Amino acid sequence: MSTPSPSPLTALPTDKELVLKVIPMPADCNANGDIFGGWVMAQVDLAGSVLPARYVQGRMATVAVNEFIFKQPVRVGDILSFFASVERIGNTSITVQVEVYAERFTDQGRYGKVTEAKLTYVAIDAQGKPRPVPKNS
Fold first, then answer.
1. CA 4, CA 40: separation in Å to the nearest integer?
2. 17-123: CATH homologous superfamily?
3. DSSP E strand boundaries for 23-92
4. Which residues pair with 131 in a beta bridge?
5. The whole model's pTM is what?
6. Judging by beta carbons within 10 Å of its beta carbon (0-12, 13-18, 19+), is residue 51 exposed, middle or buried?
7. FRET pair for 117, CA 20 to 30 Å: which of 18, 35, 37, 126?
8. 109 pLDDT more than 80
9. Domain extent listing, the chain
10. Can you say how many angstroms the Cα of residue 59 is from the centroid of all Cα atoms in its chain?
11. For residues 129 and 42, what is the distance between their CA atoms, to the nearest angstrom?
């Protein structure tokens, strides 16, 4: 029996950049056969760090998960596409919006949003203290 596709979209976001694609595997499942929320959160954190790294030009750390919404379950074999955009650049921090879209491995080309999140990263120095985001970025 096939798993139903997420609600299909006609297009993926054009106002965000594709920063990561990944396929969850059986080891990433909970007892219900869905992918652990924590696994999805870790992937969102990785995806969310891509754009701030361009500005920070050095070490940074995740300082806040401002919002995290699981819209639909993620299944083994889903092809996940992570799209990100910078929402705000502060003195030492950068806030990023991440949207995750799934396409079922057996029903490629039909996408549905499964997760969205907002995270904040802070630029840090060698001692782990906040430092300014370079202005020439």
1. 20
2. Hotdog Thioesterase (3.10.129.10)
3. 60-70, 79-89
4. none
5. 0.89
6. buried
7. 126
8. yes
9. 17-123
10. 19
11. 23
